[in-house]
Amino acid sequence: MSDDCPQSEESANLNRSGAGVEVLIDGSHRGSTLTTFANALSERGFAVTTKQAGNGEGLTTTDLSKFDVVVIPVPQRPYTEAELQKIHEYVESGGSLFAVGQWTDPLRGKAKDINAITDRYGLHFNGETNSSLRNIQDPTDTTVEDYDWRVLLHNTVDHPITNGVETIEYDGVGLNVSDGGIGTQSPLLYGDEDTYEFTYSTSEKRFERGKEIVGGAAAWDIGQNGRVVAFGSQKTLTSYIKESWREEHVQTDSRRFVMRTMK
């Protein structure tokens, strides 16, 4: 795994303004269309298209090559083999994929559906079983006292996405990162000495993994410069980047981080 992700100056400039960047948010598998995030992107000049769950066609008739970034938030039904192949061909051709998870329903019980997309690139949404996801918790770095799952992740690697990012408000599932996948992999956000993972299942298990616990990760150097980013806290995109939320709660760099996941 590597901490260094080269990126062209053109991509860096587009990332700051959003001008000329086409984004697809795929809600066709009964996932959220991330209205808050979509609005925030539009305000920055990104051209955002959202695909709603409807006639069941999914991505089969969608020309992904029109989009610079495809966002897949918490699918509630599986992608077909044809759709998976289409997504992989898109990334291999230089596309950027942003896969978003969470530790509660609806991803709980359906983690295999998002891992079917990300595992190929060495990025895995973590859990002992498909129905028991590992929630990241921390007893000291929290935004609300005694709410260990409202975590402030403050460890980042040197990477264009985390440039200027010091803290992220996180309420989500942990990730596993493996260098056996396609491309070059690296964590982006990770825990500290007392961060742990917890499964809310019939057995309730606690995993003391500290700095090995990852909340965001990336794979790049895929095909023609394709990139995949996996992030386990959908709540960050639906709540923690709102201006109203930021005015009333702990100030973090959550908004800056999620904006920089857009290539």
Provide a quick synopsis of the model.
The chain has 263 residues and is of the alpha/beta class.
Write up what this structure looks like.
This protein is an alpha/beta fold and 263 residues long. It has a single domain (9-260), classed as Class I glutamine amidotransferase (GATase) domain (Rossmann fold). Helices cover 22% and strands 27% of the residues. It is built from seven helices and 17 strands. The strands form five sheets. An eight-stranded mixed β-sheet has the order 2-1-3-4-17-16-13-10, sandwiched between helices. The chain has a three-stranded antiparallel β-sheet with strand order 8-14-15, with no helix packed on it. Strands 5-12 form a two-stranded antiparallel ribbon. Residues 1-15 have low confidence and may be disordered.
CATH architectural arrangement: 3-Layer(aba) Sandwich
Q: What's the CATH class label?
A: Alpha Beta
**What is the total tally of β strands?**
17
Structural domain tally: 1
Features:
globular, 263 residues, three-stranded antiparallel sheet, 22% helix, 7 helices
Secondary-structure map:
Layout: H1 9-17, E1 22-26, H2 35-43, E2 47-51, E3 69-73, H3 81-92, E4 96-100, H4 111-118, E5 123-125, E6 127-129, E7 132-133, E8 135-137, E9 151-153, E10 155-156, E11 168-170, E12 175-177, E13 184-190, E14 196-199, E15 205-207, E16 214-222, E17 226-231, H5 234-240, H6 243-248, H7 254-260
Parallel strand pairs: 1-2, 1-3, 3-4, 4-17
Antiparallel strand pairs: 5-12, 6-7, 8-14, 9-11, 10-13, 13-16, 14-15, 16-17
